[in-house]
Amino acid sequence: MNKFDYMAKYGYEQLIYFYDKETGLKGVTCIHDTTLGPALGGTRLWNYATEDEAVEDVLRLARGMTYKNAVAGLNIGGGKTVLIGDADKVKSEAYWRAFGRYVQSLNGRYITAEDVNTSPDDMEYVAMETNYIVGLTKTSGDPSPFTALGVYWGMRASCLEKFGSNDLKGRTVLVQGVGHVGYNLVKLLVNDGAKVYVSDIKQEKLDKVASDFPVTIVPTTDIFAFEYEIFAPCAMGAVVNDQTIPQFKFKIICGAANNVLKEERHGAELEKRGILYAPDYVINAGGVINVYQEILGYDPNEAKRKVEKIYGKVLDVFKIAKENNITPAKAADRLAEERIRVIRNIRGNYIKR
Ligand code: NAD
After folding, report:
1. What is the CATH number of the domain that holds 80?
2. Burial letters 330-346, b for 16+ CB under 10 A, else e
3. 220 falls within a domain
4. Residue finishing a domain among 258, 285, 312
5. Which of 109, 147, 170, 248 suits a disulfide with 286, CB 3.0-4.6 Å?
């Protein structure tokens, strides 16, 4: 991959390598677009096989954050950091503090947070060296209940679109993965009187959710074998692919997992089968909306109020999709791009401050 060509094609601003010889800290930050504000996106620690693999991941993830933050209506841009290393070996106080100092050196163009393999304890060390960090335990805490709340509102909007009513009472929903987000989603669905089926590869997660709520457990191998109306993937991405699509009998797909469609064309395949897809990054933005609130002064009620707006965003996405005869996934991208474009334009005139 020619990195400058790729950056030019998708409008990237910056790709920064960093290294600390004392601790072995090694990583790459990508700042995709800061039209709306500083780039916000978590730090992922992963044992990438090659440097190119790490760079491809950070480029893809940073751009994804620009779109997610833009559609969510936040005044922040998109960025991401990947650290290259074995999570079981590299971590130490010095490692994280070296990282914090590097983040500080970017002078607020990039704000970091937790992501895969970075824990609240790790981030406490990072916060010792930088002001540009959000999502700490002592402030906004666990984002998962907010993410689940966003998915819940996305699901209600999807029901309105598909069934003409946003009421979840009596609706049949399968939640794949009852971890941090899935568990909280089940709670909200049961509370509204939905009939909930759950599936997970970990027995202890199933035991917990089944002891707390009236749910039906479905073996992971059977999740597409019976009929239900809504599929909520809350485990891993790429669940919509050439192998799974022919098995789908549900009417709506709406879950927290990132990159639900394996490829873009799978969005059109869902459309052909009359299955409504609530775009992943629109409905799973509750977590980032919650941490963003820290920048403004953390207030959980205000964060909740903003997360509930996902309902209206999802309806906007469906409207754009219908009006332009495009898939909801494409409509979401269009909504993000349009918001960035108009905000860039309104800032074009000179105003003395
Ligand atoms: P988690 O690790 O807490 O939960 C995932 C659950 O899925 C686990 O219980 C795991 O056992 C289960 N699982 C894994 N493979 C499975 C399979 N094949 N079949 C059934 N279950 C399986 O993760 P989470 O924080 O709840 O996040 C869930 C998804 O939502 C992830 O894709 C994540 O990227 C995405 N997401 C999470 C947040 C957040 O706030 N946590 C925000 C945005 C997006």
Report:
1. 3.40.50.10860
2. bbbbbbbeebbeeeeee
3. yes
4. 285
5. 147
Instruction: Determine how many CB atoms are found less than 10 A away from the CB of residue 65.
Output: 24
- What domain count does the chain have? 2
Query: What is the whole-number distance in angstroms between the Cα of residue 252 and the centre of ligand 1?
Result: 19
- The pTM of the whole model exceeds 0.90: yes
- Say how many Å lie between the CA of residue 175 and the centre of ligand 1: 11
Asked if 196 and 252 sit in the same domain, the reply is yes
Site of tokens 């609530």: 278
- Measured in angstroms, how far is the CA atom of residue 144 from the centroid of ligand 1? 10
> Is-catalytic flag, 80?
yes
Structural domain contains residue 313: no
Mapping DSSP to helix (H, G, I), strand (E, B) and coil, where does residue 156 land? Answer: helix
Task: Identify each DSSP E strand in 160-233 by its residue range.
Answer: 172-176, 195-199, 216-217, 230-233
CB 145 less than 6 A from any atom of ligand 1 = no
Whether residue 277 is contained in a domain is answered as yes
Distances (CA, A) of 167 to 30, 163, 212: 41, 9, 23
Beta carbon of 154 within 6 Å of any ligand 1 atom: no
Domain with 271 in it = 144-285
Q: Among 21, 26, 68, 80, which one carries the catalytic annotation?
A: 80
For residue 348, what are its two tokens? 């074009």
Q: Residue 106, class by beta-carbon neighbours within 10 Å (0-12 exposed, 13-18 middle, 19+ buried)?
A: buried
pLDDT (tens digit, 0 to 9) for every residue of the chain, 353 residues total? 799 999 999 999 999 999 999 999 999 999 999 999 999 999 999 999 999 999 999 999 999 999 999 999 999 999 999 999 999 999 999 999 999 999 999 999 999 999 989 988 999 999 999 999 999 888 888 899 999 999 999 999 999 999 999 999 999 999 999 999 999 999 999 999 999 999 999 999 999 999 999 999 999 999 999 999 999 999 999 999 999 999 999 999 999 999 999 999 999 999 999 999 999 999 999 999 999 999 999 999 999 999 999 999 999 999 999 999 999 999 999 999 999 999 999 988 889 98
> Which of 144, 187, 218, 234 has the most ligand 1 atoms within 8 A of CB, as the residue to mutate?
234
